[in-house]
Write a structure and sequence with these properties.
341 residues; mainly beta; five-stranded antiparallel beta sheet; four-stranded antiparallel beta sheet; 5% helix; globular; binds beta-D-mannopyranose
């Protein structure tokens, strides 16, 4: 096994962890034995929580959760946990405010990501901006969540920030899309000096030639900085005769120029196999949105939505997953180029 290290990230010795099971067959990722970690009807008025993002905070963990309200409208709920597995949710959805402090709620909000950059925490999600678009808010205390200007015009989804500036700019991955259940989609990168104005857009990677990701792809968890590049977990979708199937894929991006894909795994890392992934409101969905990782051990806990009904957890280690991605890598010219035309 190589000596891959997670860098520029804190040690999180209390992160959730479970060793590989005895049945482990050199798979790159293994599921938590007690999945799903969030069951149906978790909060009064909320039917399902899934596609949600968490991170270490103070002595424990916090998260922003996609709560599908019983009126069918998704909103974002805040939760805390001492172990990263058992979660206490606030009963009311997050009440966003504008920069003047007035309530400023989106019509709907789903698939949140949560990333710390410098001294602030950013929530990034999909919301209505005269069509599906990227919403953003900043918080420093997880009490006041201040909406900042939407970075892009519609239609766009699956935005996630890198956890530090690169080349002096904030960097955001996103997936331009359409107004429906988008039947296409590639990952692009945009840069900003101030989190307000975004430009210097680059293509990162297209839907793959592999069948499991042949329809569309979208960034999942915030990239993890490693000695081998930015480790990106993303989702890949195939259109079958019975509808879309969402699997989890992995790639390594260049540290200084992350629009260049160094390695991209031709195999999915995880695909719907368990009852909570195959059966639910939308069957056959595994949708990664966050990791908790420990730079001292290289342990990674991957949080993913399952079947648009549950939150589930899987584990891997930095050296193991990086070796696996490199061993099974297949990159194309559009992956490895800077992505500028
Ligand atoms: C996508 C998003 C995800 C969802 C998936 C499967 O378009 O809406 O939130 O998990 O579809 O329904």
């Amino acid at each position: 096994m190589s000596e891959v290290k997670i860098i520029n990230a804190p040690a999180v010795p209390n992160m959730p962890w479970q060793e590989e099971p005895d049945t482990f067959r050199n798979a790159p990722v293994w599921r938590y034995s007690e999945n799903p970690i969030i069951d149906r009807n978790p909060v009064e008025g909320v039917a399902r929580i899934f596609n949600s993002a968490v991170m270490p905070y103070e002595d424990g963990f916090v998260g922003v959760f996609r709560g599908e309200q019983k009126n069918g409208i998704p909103m974002i709920y805040f939760g805390r946990s001492s172990d990263g597995i058992h979660w206490d949710f606030e009963h009311d959805k997050i009440r966003f405010v504008d920069e003047e402090g007035n309530e400023f709620m989106p019509l709907y909000a789903y698939d949140p990501r949560l990333v710390k950059v410098e001294d602030a925490y950013y929530v990034i999600w999909c919301q209505d901006f005269y069509g599906a678009a990227i919403g953003m808010a900043r918080t420093k205390d997880f009490k006041t969540f201040t909406r900042i200007e939407n970075p892009f015009i519609p239609f766009n989804r699956n935005a996630v920030l890198f956890p530090r500036k690169i080349g002096g700019n904030y960097v955001l991955l996103s997936r331009p899309s359409d107004s429906g259940h988008t039947p296409f989609g590639d990952i692009f990168l945009s840069q900003s000096p101030d989190m307000v104005y975004w430009g210097r857009h680059r293509h990162v990677m297209s839907r793959g030639s592999e069948w499991w990701e042949s329809l569309k792809i979208g960034a999942g968890a915030a990239p993890i900085e490693t000695t081998e590049g930015w480790l990106l977990f993303y989702h890949g979708v195939v259109n079958t005769c019975n509808g879309y199937v969402y699997s989890i894929g992995g790639a390594l991006l260049d540290i200084d120029e992350p629009s260049k894909v160094l390695y991209r795994c031709e195999n999915f890392l995880l695909t719907p196999e368990e009852w909570y992934e195959e059966r639910g409101f939308v069957p056959n969905v595994t949708f990664p949105c966050a990791t908790i990782h420990d730079s001292s051990t290289g342990r990674i806990a991957l949080y993913y939505g399952a079947a648009d009904s549950y939150v589930a957890l899987a584990f891997t280690k930095a050296d193991l997953i990086v070796d696996y991605i490199k061993k099974h890598s297949r990159v194309t010219d559009t992956d490895t180029e800077p992505g500028r035309r």
